[in-house]
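Dear Dr. L.,

I hope this message finds you well. Following up on our conversation about the binding site, I have prepared a predicted three-dimensional model of the protein together with glyceraldehyde-3-phosphate. For your records, I am including the exact sequence and ligand specification that went into the calculation, followed by the structure tokens. Please feel free to forward this to your student if that is useful.
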Amino acid sequence: MLVTGKDILVPARAGKYAVGAFNTNNMEITQAIIHTAEKLRSPVIVQMSEGAIKYGGQDLANIVIDLATRATVPVALHLDHGSSYESALNAIKMGFTSVMIDASHHPFEENVHETKRVVEAAHAMGISVEAELGRLGGIEEHVVVDEKDAFLTDPDEAVKFVEETGTDYLAIAIGTSHGAYKGKGRPFIDQARIKKIGELLSIPLVAHGSSGVPAEIVQRLRAAGGEIGDAAGIADEDLTEAAQYGIAKVNVDTDLRLASTVGIREVLKATPKEFDPRKIFGPARDVMSQIVEHKMGVLGSVGKA
Ligand code: G3H
Ligand code: 13P
Ligand code: ZN
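The resulting structure of the complex is given below.
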């Protein structure tokens, strides 16, 4: 069933598990996400970025909405990194049940102002809202220890932000970053900070940049002819721990991008004569389903629907 983000995330926060929020860009990705959620009896969030809306538009949103409506588990359709009030409103008009307003690059007061506008409009239509406070980015990029605090979410500021905006869930900067290169070795995730914010705030917290970039997938990508550098992601156990402290929504895009490319490359490499799209995209869908299944296990959402 198609539900709001709040319907999924409030029970997750209370139950100390997290729900995967997977980015989609086409039918196969959407099927991998929603069919795996049904198989595992897990709630799930499917998200589309503004780039995904530009690429797939209402056609893609309708695929998600149709699969979600027919699903026997709760599914929300969420706008990822909405950049303006207009963008959030447009997504709601398209049928999204959850929107993110990402004004985190603005000064605090402006972030509050932009977020509040979206919250008021979205709530009037029964849609839930995610906002962001703090700056994402690898800690590696900001090696001076004192500086890192300037980028990560300040717990007291987070309380003030939620009080002033009324956002339903909050994305916090805890050391993760977007993409396949999250730093060398084991990328940093500030558990103490999550714990502190989780003690001060009872709303669900959101972790962006949470792909695991599994070594096995990276290896397969290389073996199939793909070129990828020193890739690294967030360790499984770090996400499991973060869910105990209040992280209830975990954003994953990169892992599905890697998985689909692995699936496609492996077929094309092994069978150069193949040109039936079903034989090419089908295996990619299977590799993505395995990633979704693994992540749901790590986050503890299996059997919660
Ligand atoms: O956080 C960003 C997501 O990975 C979406 O990326 O804007 O290229 O669709 P995109
Ligand atoms: P990854 O790049 O780690 O998959 O993060 C995706 C994300 O945060 C989407 O909002
Ligand atoms: Zn993100």
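In brief: The chain is about 50% helix and 15% strand.

With kind regards,
A. P.
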